[in-house]
């Protein structure tokens, strides 16, 4: 997305004239409580960024640790990790998303605690070191909720099994943020087929008492 396109999208947001994001616009302060202070979100970010309340809960599990945000997007989780962790490596293949994430981290005053990387996570994985890997890969757009059971092979840009195997080469401590209709049996399979098997904790991620996603916490030892 070019600077002109960003400006045009911002005007559409403010005027409420972009039908693709209207349903998310009313949630802007749930996504970023400091939205009015200069937060930048691209079209994909509106439906893929983690709600701030949930991102804070993810971050609490990573206090004092080195966190790798493997698909950082516009930085919703990165910001909360940076507040409490030892350090954060935030990766995204889209340079404009990384630029937005840097801007948003500056709004929250935590940019100095983050190493932002423009690159392909899969290419970078062999060289990465960290205590926790956070995975919130693309779910395939808003239509994910139309399927009865979301399968691991629906994740993008690679299926969940391949992705999980790659991430395990970095650390066994993995957090996956997934659709609320994800196949829980497949998450259990990811844990049990690991060598050695991993501990799995499944958490319903809720906003206003309504479940909107599932967070899966994998670890070598029970928390």
TrEMBL record:
Annotated localization: Cytoplasm; Nucleus, Cajal body; Nucleus, Nucleolus
Main location: cytoplasm
Catalytic activity: a 5'-end (N(7)-methyl 5'-triphosphoguanosine)-ribonucleoside in snoRNA + S-adenosyl-L-methionine = a 5'-end (N(2),N(7)-dimethyl 5'-triphosphoguanosine)-ribonucleoside in snoRNA + S-adenosyl-L-homocysteine + H(+); a 5'-end (N(2),N(7)-dimethyl 5'-triphosphoguanosine)-ribonucleoside in snRNA + S-adenosyl-L-methionine = a 5'-end (N(2),N(2),N(7)-trimethyl 5'-triphosphoguanosine)-ribonucleoside in snRNA + S-adenosyl-L-homocysteine + H(+); a 5'-end (N(2),N(7)-dimethyl 5'-triphosphoguanosine)-ribonucleoside in snoRNA + S-adenosyl-L-methionine = a 5'-end (N(2),N(2),N(7)-trimethyl 5'-triphosphoguanosine)-ribonucleoside in snoRNA + S-adenosyl-L-homocysteine + H(+); a 5'-end (N(7)-methyl 5'-triphosphoguanosine)-ribonucleoside in snRNA + S-adenosyl-L-methionine = a 5'-end (N(2),N(7)-dimethyl 5'-triphosphoguanosine)-ribonucleoside in snRNA + S-adenosyl-L-homocysteine + H(+)
Record SUPFAM superfamilies: S-adenosyl-L-methionine-dependent methyltransferases
One annotated GO molecular function: methyltransferase activity
CDD domains tied to this protein: AdoMet_MTases
Keywords of this entry: Cytoplasm, Methyltransferase, Nucleus, Phosphoprotein, S-adenosyl-L-methionine, Transcription, Transcription regulation, Transferase
Pfam families, A to Z: Methyltransf_15 (PF09445)
Gene Ontology CC: Cajal body; cytoplasm; nucleolus
InterPro entries cross-referenced by the UniProt entry: RNA_cap_Gua-N2-MeTrfase, SAM-dependent_MTases_sf
A single BP term in Gene Ontology: 7-methylguanosine cap hypermethylation
Protein family (similarity comment): Belongs to the methyltransferase superfamily. Trimethylguanosine synthase family.
PANTHER family: S-ADENOSYLMETHIONINE-DEPENDENT METHYLTRANSFERASE RELATED, TRIMETHYLGUANOSINE SYNTHASE
Free-text function comment from the UniProt entry: Catalyzes the 2 serial methylation steps for the conversion of the 7-monomethylguanosine (m(7)G) caps of snRNAs and snoRNAs to a 2,2,7-trimethylguanosine (m(2,2,7)G) cap structure. The enzyme is specific for guanine, and N7 methylation must precede N2 methylation. Hypermethylation of the m7G cap of U snRNAs leads to their concentration in nuclear foci, their colocalization with coilin and the formation of canonical Cajal bodies (CBs). Plays a role in transcriptional regulation.
Subunit-level organization: May form homooligomers. Interacts with CREBBP/CBP, EED/WAIT1, EP300/P300, NCOA6/PRIP, PPARBP/PBP and SMN.
Name listed for the protein in its UniProt record: Trimethylguanosine synthase
